[in-house]
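Sanity check

After download, print the first record. It should look like this:
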Amino acid sequence: MDDSEASAAAVTRPLLAVAGAGAADEAAVPPWRDQLTARGLAVSAGLGVLFCLISLKLGLTTGIVPSLNIAAALLGYFLVRTWTAVLERFGVVSRPFTRQENTVIQTCVVACSGLTGSGGFGSYMLAMNHKTYAAIGPDFPGNRAVDVKDPSLGWIIGFMFVVSFFGLFSLVALRKVMVIDYKLPYPSGTATATLINSLHTTAGAQLADKQVNCLGKYFGISFLWNCFKWFFSGVGNSCGFDNFPSLGLAAFKNTPTYIGCGLLTPHIANCSMLLGAIISWGFLWPYISTKAGDWYPANLGSNDFKGLYGYKVFISVSVILGDGLYNLIKIIYATIKEITIARSKQGRLPLVRVEEDDEGPKLSDEDMLRNRIFINDSIPLWLAGSGYVGLAAISTATVPMIFPQLKWYLVLSAYLVAPLLAFCNSYGAGLTDWNLASTYGKIGLFIFASWVGQNGGVIAGLAACGVMMSIVSTAADLMQDFRTGYLTLSSPRSMFVSQLIGTALGCVIAPLSFWLYWTAFDVGNPDGMFKAPYAVIFREMSILAVEGLSALPQHCLSICSAFFVAALLINLLRDVTPANASQFIPVPMAMAIPFYLGAYFAIDMFVGTVILFIWERVNEEECRDFKDAVASGLICGDGIWSVPSALLSILRIDPPICMYFKPSSLSWLLLTNNVNFAIGRTGSPYCKFAMDMVMNPLVSLKQTWWVGTFW
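Expected C-alpha cells:
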C-alpha cells in the first residue's frame, strides 16, 4: 500500500496498559551486547520471512499494508518463550528473556519486512517491467519499449544493498533531539513499547498466553480456510469461493486477510474506502461508460488506457497526489512552526505537558533512568557521518551501473537533499504517525523524470523514486524504533545494530520472497489476483512527468483537476472542523484506492470494521485485549498459505475441482433447463456437476473426485 494508507492502518492505541512496569534498577538492564542474542536473531529471521510474505501479498493485491509492529512483538515473545520452554524440558537452562531482547527482535523483524514497501516490489520497481509496459499499451504516448527493465534477482538484491542503509545513517545523530528534547510521541512506537512492557510483567504474561492462544486459533482457521478453498479454485480466475457473490457478483472476494486488516484499520479509513467504492463503481464509472463512442472509442479493451481504464488510473492518481501534497505541506509547516517555537523556548517543543519550576522541568526517576540509558549508549557521530558519506560514494558509482538512465550526478544530488527530507518525514511521522515516504518518492520521481526527459526519463524517475523512498522511509522507521527502545530501556546501540541486521536480512529475504510470487503467480495481470495496482500508477506518473498532460484521455484532465481540488478541500475541512465533527469526514487517500482497484477489498475491510464496532460495544475490554491477536492470526494464516500455494503453482499442481457461481437469468427452472440442455448437447459431466452443486450439494460431493480428475 501507499505509505500514508498504511499509516492510517497503524495501531495508535496500546494493546495492553502498562501494568507494574515501574522504573527498573539500572543494574538490572543488560548491556547492549547482551540484548543481541543468537536466539533473537534466529527468531527475527524466521519472522522476517513470514512478514515479508504477508507484506508482499498485501502489497501485490491491494497495496494496503497495515502496521505489523504489534504482531512482530507478540509473535517474537511467543516464539522465544516457546524456545526456552522446550529447552527447559531437556534440562537446558536458558538466559532470561528480557523486554530489551523482545524490543530488538521486533525492531529487526520490522526493518526486514519494511523493505518490501520501500523496495518498491509493488510500486516503482515493478513499474519498470515489461508486463506493466504491456498493460498500459505500446501505443500509449510516452510508453516506450526501451523504458523497460525486467526483474532479476541479481540487480534487485544489489540495488537493495546500495540504497537501503542510507536512512539509518542520515538521522541517527538526531535521535536525542527527536526522542528526548522534542518528545515526539510516535504513536505506533509507543503502543509497541506499551505491549512489550506489559508482556514482561506477571499479569501481562498471563494475558499474553491468552492472546497467543487466540492468535493461534485464528491463524489455524485462516490457514485451513485457504487450504479448503484451494481444492475448489480450479484453473483460472473464475472458480472457487473467491467468486462467491456475497454482495453481488462485482464484490465477491471475501478473505480473512482484508477482514483482519479491517480490524486494525481505523473506522474512518474503512468507511472512507467503502464510500470511495460507492462513488466510483456505483456512479462515476457507470456514467463515464455511457460516454463510450463520444469521449473515447467504444471498442477498447477493459485494460486500455485510452478508454475507461485510463480514467480509473488517472483520477486515482489525482486524489492520491492531492492528499499527499496537502499532508506534506501541513507537516512541513508544523515542523517549521515547532522548531521556531523550540528556539524561542530554548529547545523545548510543547508536545507533552511538562510541569516546571524556576530551575527547569521535573523528571520522574523512570524518565531520568531512560534518559541516562538512551544517552550513555551513544552512537559516535563519526560513525554516522562516515557511514553516510561512504555509502553515498559507493551508491553514486554503482546505481548508474544498474540504471544507466540515472547518471551519477543525479544520484549524488539526491543524496545531498535526502537528509533534509528524511528529517521532515521523521518529524511528521512522530507527530502524526503518518509516514509519507511514498509522497517524497513521487516528488523525486517527477523531478528526475522531467529532468532527464524522453531519453530514459521514465526509468530514471522510477529509480530516483526508489532512492528517495528508501532513505526517508528507513529514517522514520529507525526513529520510531528508537522511541520504542527508549520506553523499554533498550540501548540505542542494540537498536541500531538490530536495524542494520534486519535491513541486511531484508535485502535478501524481500527479493527472494518477491521472486517466489513472481515465478509462481501471474503478478501484474489486471484481471488476476496479484494486480500490483501501484505499479501501473507509478509508471503512469513517470510518463506524465516526461510527456506532460497530453497523454490523458478526453476530459480526463478536467475530471482529475476537480478530484485533486476536492482532495485538498476535504483535508482542509478535516483540519478546520471540530474534532467531534472531523472524525466523520472521509480520508481522501483511502477513498482513492478502490477507485482503481475495485470494491471487493473495501467491502471486506468494512466487514472487519463492523465486527470491531460491535465488539467494542459488547465488551470493550476484551476487544482492546484481543482484537490485535485476532487480526494478526487472520493475516498471518492467510499470508503463510501463500508459501504452499506458490509451491503447488510452481510444481504445476492444479486444484482438482472448479466450483463456480452464476446468477439465474430468469428462474431456477430456466437455469435447470439451460444446464440440462447443455448436458444434452455436450454430454459434459463438468456442467452437470455445476448443476448438482446448486440443486443437491450433498449428493454432488460424492462426485467431486471423479469430476475434478476429469476436468
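If your output differs, re-run the checksum step. Summary of this record's structure: The CA atoms of residues 385 and 630 lie 43 Å apart.
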